[in-house]
Specification:
The chain is built from 11 helices and 16 strands. The chain has about 350 residues and is an alpha/beta fold. The strands form 4 sheets. It has a 7-stranded mixed sheet with strand order 5-4-1-13-14-16-15. The longest helix is centred in the C-terminal third of the chain and has 17 residues, at about 260-275. It starts with a helix and ends with a helix.
């Protein structure tokens, strides 16, 4: 298990010693804070150089917390190490699906993983799921479920559900791991599962099939000039369709920022780092560019929130300010949200911390 490996690496580290100094810890978003598209945001490399010991090792506890999940923790650590010119370890990365390692009661169930990426099935297995099912499995074994395409429908030998279903049926739960690509096929199969309680045979009443959704983000910041829709948009569309067809609200267990389970996981990792460095965390800062997930998540979990203006949130008049109140990007959220700090870039905030 990931958590066990991290605990062992800290316990066996030569850096482990009695707590002798006070420090701050950082929980840092990635997209829109460190990088935007393929570009590293100006001032970021210089800022992390100031946090390092001259040999590329960070002197303060840092966890990189992202609502992305298209690469493994190790691959993301290697990517950030190259972009930031500092040594980032696997145990410093918390992806949106990383806390699923703690959902052990799901691990032996047949679970449908919705999302994209050729490694989605292996990612699920790495998270501890022993019986993951992905869309490619369903397209291969039950191709008649997806008849939105006229061409595909006409090519089918039969449009009838087989009498003998694959051995991974019935499905006992759904995980929306990241933003799906084939929305039509994903929506159709997920709706089939929800309406039949995972059996596909006939519509059933009763409690809803359990569903976990990773990443509540409606949008994210790429190099494009307008926000791009994210996994949260897919789930909101699915919820509207489910309510129209079933008359019930879709019950979703969310994972990722700003949820408590995700911040609890990240804080645990941060405290393990501090112990390995012999430091006591006097202050923890949550740094991000999204008011609705980064600022709200930090505020709700006892962390000082830092809003940077280099991603989704843009305000050219801000260089560094305290107690900045902004409006949510969501129309359903009417109350303003206050960030403890707002700054032009993460590099500017690091300068403030080290002055």
């Amino acid at each position: 298990m990931f958590v066990r490996r991290c605990c062992q690496s800290v316990a066996n580290s030569p850096l482990l010693r009695s707590i002798s100094s006070s420090s701050f810890g950082l929980i840092v978003d990635i997209d829109g804070v460190l990088i935007r598209g393929a570009r590293t945001i100006p001032g970021t490399v210089e800022g992390f150089k100031k946090l390092s010991d001259g040999k590329g090792n960070l002197k303060h506890p840092v966890v990189f917390l992202t609502n992305g999940s298209y690469r493994s923790e190790l691959a993301k650590a290697e990517e950030l190490s190259e972009k930031l010119n500092v040594n980032i370890r696997e145990e410093q990365i918390v992806l949106v699906n990383t806390p699923l390692r703690t959902f052990t009661d799901w691990h032996d169930r047949s679970v449908f993983f919705a999302g994209q990426g050729s490694s989605l099935c292996s990612t699920a297995q790495d998270l501890g799921f022993t019986r993951p099912v992905v869309l490619a499995d369903v397209m291969r074994d039950i191709p008649m479920f997806n008849v939105i395409s006229h061409r595909k429908r006409m090519a089918l030998d039969s449009g009838v559900l087989p009498e003998v279903l694959p051995d991974y049926m019935p499905i006992h739960g759904i995980v929306i791991a990241n933003t799906p690509v084939d929305w039509d096929a994903h929506v159709q199969f997920i709706m089939d599962l929800l309406l039949t309680r995972g059996e596909l045979c006939a519509t059933k009443k009763g409690s809803q099939l359990p569903l976990i959704a990773c990443n509540p983000d409606l949008v994210w910041a790429s190099e494009y000039h307008l926000p791009r829709i994210a996994c949260g948009s897919f789930v909101h569309m699915l919820a509207a369709l489910y309510k129209e067809m079933s008359g019930r609200e879709l019950e979703v267990t969310w994972c990722g920022k700003p949820t408590e389970v995700t911040y609890k996981y990240a804080l645990n990792m941060l405290k393990q780092q501090a112990a390995g460095l012999g430091q006591k965390l006097d202050k923890i800062y949550g740094i991000g560019d999204n008011v609705d997930v980064d600022v709200l998540g930090a505020n709700n979990n006892g962390i000082s929130s830092v809003l940077v203006c280099s991603g989704l949130y843009r305000n050219e008049s801000i260089d560094f300010a305290r107690n900045v109140t902004v409006r949510s990007k969501r129309a359903s959220v009417t109350e303003p949200i206050t960030a403890d700090y707002a700054t032009r870039t993460i590099g500017r905030f690091i300068d403030h911390l080290l002055r």
